[in-house]
Amino acid sequence: MKAFFKRLLAGFGIGTGAAIPGVSGAAIALILNVYEDIIEAVNSFRKKFKWSIIVLIPILIGIMLAVLVCVKLFSWAFEYCMFILICIFAGFLIGSFPGITDEVKGVQKEKKHIIALICGVIFVITLGVLSVVLGLNGVDVSSAFVKMPVWLYFVLIPVGAVAAVALTVPGLSGSLILLIIGFYRPLMDNASSWGGELLKGNTEHTGQLIGMILCFGVGCLIGVVLVSKIMNVLLKKHRNTTYFAIIGFILGSMFVLFFNYDIFRYYQVWAGEVIENINPGLQMWLEMLIGVLAAAIAGTLSYLVVRSSRKKKQQA
Fold first, then answer.
1. Helices (H), 81-149
2. Where does the pLDDT of residue 142 fall: very low under 50, low under 70, confident under 90, or very high at 90 and above?
3. Which residues have CB under 8 Å from 88's CB, separation 6+?
4. CA–CA separation, 129 vs 264, rounded Å?
5. Which residues contact 302 (CB under 8 A, 6 or more apart)?
6. Highest mean pLDDT of the ranges 41-45, 134-138, 170-174, 290-294
7. Phi first, then psi: what are they for 160, rounded to 5°?
């Protein structure tokens, strides 16, 4: 039961992180020491069926619970206090970062390791810049979600697979990739809106909600299975190089957290522009101050978890 609840909480953390543009759900899994178990469980599903089920079920339940909570909460937070929310996750990543670098501690750095790290940083930062450039140039598919044509359900399957690629590779943010291709806010806003209607007894959009979630979920499942197999090979044959690339992804995501289209629009509102669905509840200086304090607290707490984990490993 202890292991079950530990994995359940890990799944909740993964799902919460995956919902934030710039935060990688897989990086959260790595920080919480369940990433390699997940990869192994997905790849050994037939050979170690019982063990795989024991590992994956609580994590999947945790992810689903996080999604249910985060859809409504983040929809509100993105409108009124997005900077504080981003700072909390930035603090969490920074405080946990030493735990990730422990994986390559003592490894003699080779040229290929440095190249992998630099490429990881550049790749993630490029995603962040693309999200801003494409967003400012009017790339938007939200209008298609109003009527939910049949073709959109089929499009959601590869979209889910692409998001799952980032969900499976630490340091890559699935929600950021969805943001870049224009699907993040429509998925988040419609799930929140239609889910709220359903809770009030209005079933007008129930079919669209179920179809949207089902198609996106099928795509995620396909992506997770395929990429898990690739990551399993990389971790077994090129472990150190893979971890240096992951470290690069996470370093890049620390920058992208504060530079992607959603947060850029938030900055625009601070600068005096009027943008629909963004209404900061605090003055800029006050939210920045609270954000910095929140980041410091989150960073301290996550670093204490890393230290505790180190002590347990030493005792073991």
1. 82-101, 111-136, 144-147
2. low
3. 294, 295, 298
4. 10
5. 31, 91, 92, 93, 94, 95, 96
6. 290-294
7. -65, -40
Closest of 144, 143, 148, 147 to residue 215, by C-alpha: 148
Whether 223 and 167 have beta carbons less than 8 Å apart is answered as yes
175 has pLDDT over 80: no
Mean pLDDT, the chain, integer: 82
**220 Cβ neighbours under 8 A, 6+ residues apart:** 160, 161, 163, 164, 167
* H helix intervals, the chain: 2-18, 25-31, 35-43, 49-80, 82-101, 111-136, 144-147, 150-168, 174-180, 184-199, 206-237, 239-256, 261-270, 284-315
d(CA 271, CA 265): 10
Question: CB of 168 within 8 A of CB of 231?
Answer: yes
- Range of the structural domain that residue 130 is part of: 2-315
Q: Could you tell me if 146 and 277 are in contact, meaning their C-beta atoms sit under 8 angstroms apart? A: no
Report the greatest alpha carbon distance in the chain: 61
**268: which residues sit within 8 A by CB, 6+ positions away?**
275
Q: Which two tokens stand for residue 133?
A: 């450039």
Domains of the chain: total: 1
Rounded distance, CA 210 to CA 198, Å?
11
3-state secondary structure of 21: coil
The total of other beta-carbon atoms located within 10 Å of residue 76's CB is 12
Per-residue model confidence (pLDDT) at position 181: 66
